[in-house]
């Protein structure tokens, strides 16, 4: 913010800043101005222009921050695409989980908790245990064919993992399974849009 | 006579206001892009992330161009 007139010393003529002469709004030199204007020599109109320009600068900086976020997301996406899939992992034996029961496991090791659910004599499904709304653990309700998130009353379809009701909008990520003999293996992750 | 005639303060203020509106609209568009991209990424839709990043970069380039124009307004 540039002063409209030269505040000090009083009695001097209007000053110049760069190429432009700065004068008081009434055009008189600083010597003829009242003391309050010499003490606070900022022209209101000019002040508005400067403030708007500062806001534009701040917004352009914000715009740059959004680009950084987008690029970070793109790089993360590319790195994940290039990463090899996790190898198959034995997560349970068929005897371990009764029909209608569930078991929590990690796949791959160190991942967020996943949920293995037995829906029939030889039918198993596995999903992320975390609700896609705010990461509360979901509860399988096999008899109703649904998964329930008690935090905000969200519901998911047990067969597909798709959201049925409540705040969740994204399906539960699904773990693909393979049963070899009496052992259940997790073989991969499916995140469907 | 050399160069463009110097604009008056009120003319410059109008231009600054118009540029400010442009920049705000573009930044809101970028915010929407980022929100939609994060939502798609978390849902496993990776295909949208790269085009969205390119679009956001283009928006930033436009914003930087407008800022450059505004700086030139005083020069």
Largest sheet of chain B: none
Sheet with most strands: strand arrangement of chain A = 7-8-9-10
State the share of residues found in helices of chain B, binned by percent. over 70%
Listing every helix as H and every strand as E from the N terminus to the C terminus, the arrangement of chain B reads: HH
Given the structure, what is the number of helices of chain A? 2
Beta strand count of chain B:
0
What multimeric state do the chains show? heterodimer
Range of helix content of chain A: 10-25%
Number-wise, the strands of chain A total 12
By helix and strand content of chain A, what is the structural category? alpha+beta
Provide the residue-averaged pLDDT of chain A: 84
The termini of chain B sit apart by 17 Å
- Biggest sheet features of chain A: 4 strands, antiparallel
Q: Measured on Cα atoms, how large is the radius of gyration of chain B?
A: 17 Å
Greatest interface and its participating residue counts: A-B, 34 and 38 residues
Describe the structure in your own words.
The complex is a heterodimer of chains A (193) and B (75). Chain A contains 2 helices and 12 strands; from the N terminus they run ββααββββββββββ. With 193 residues, chain A is α+β, with helices and mostly antiparallel strands. A 4-stranded antiparallel beta sheet of chain A has the order 7-8-9-10, with no helix packed on it. Chain A has a 3-stranded antiparallel beta sheet with strand order 3-12-11, with no helix packed on it. Chain B is mainly α and 75 residues long. In chain B, helix 1 packs antiparallel against helix 2. The radius of gyration of chain B is 17 Å and the shape is elongated. The mean pLDDT of chain B is 89. Chains A and B meet through helix 2 of A and helix 1 and helix 2 of B.
List keywords for this structure.
heterodimer; A: 193 residues; alpha+beta; four-stranded antiparallel sheet; three-stranded antiparallel sheet; 23% helix; B: 75 residues; mainly alpha; 2 helices; elongated
């Amino acid at each position: 913010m540039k002063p409209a007139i030269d505040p000090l010393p009083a009695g001097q003529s209007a000053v110049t800043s760069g190429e432009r002469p700065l004068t008081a709004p009434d055009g008189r030199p600083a010597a003829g101005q009242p003391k309050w204007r010499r003490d606070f020599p900022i022209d209101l109109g000019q002040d508005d222009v400067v403030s708007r320009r500062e806001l534009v600068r701040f917004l352009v900086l914000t715009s740059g921050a959004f680009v950084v976020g987008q690029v970070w997301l793109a790089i993360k996406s590319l790195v994940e695409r290039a990463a090899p899939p996790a190898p198959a992992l034995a997560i349970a034996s068929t005897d371990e989980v009764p029909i209608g029961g569930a078991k929590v496991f990690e796949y791959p090791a160190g991942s967020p908790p996943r949920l293995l659910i037995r829906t029939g004599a030889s039918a198993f499904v596995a999903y992320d245990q975390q609700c896609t709304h705010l990461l509360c653990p979901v509860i399988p309700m096999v008899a109703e064919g649904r998964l329930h998130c008690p935090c905000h009353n969200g519901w998911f379809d047990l067969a597909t993992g798709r959201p049925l009701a409540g705040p969740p909008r994204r399906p539960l990520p699904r773990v693909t399974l393979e049963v070899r003999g009496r052992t259940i293996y997790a073989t991969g992750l499916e995140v469907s849009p | 006579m050399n160069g463009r005639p110097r604009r008056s303060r009120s003319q410059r203020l109008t231009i600054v206001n118009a540029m400010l509106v442009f920049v705000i609209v573009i930044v809101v568009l970028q915010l929407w892009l980022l929100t939609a991209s994060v939502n798609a990424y978390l849902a496993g839709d990776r295909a949208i992330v790269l085009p969205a990043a390119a679009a956001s970069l283009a928006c930033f380039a436009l914003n930087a161009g407008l800022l450059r124009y505004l700086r030139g307004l005083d020069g």
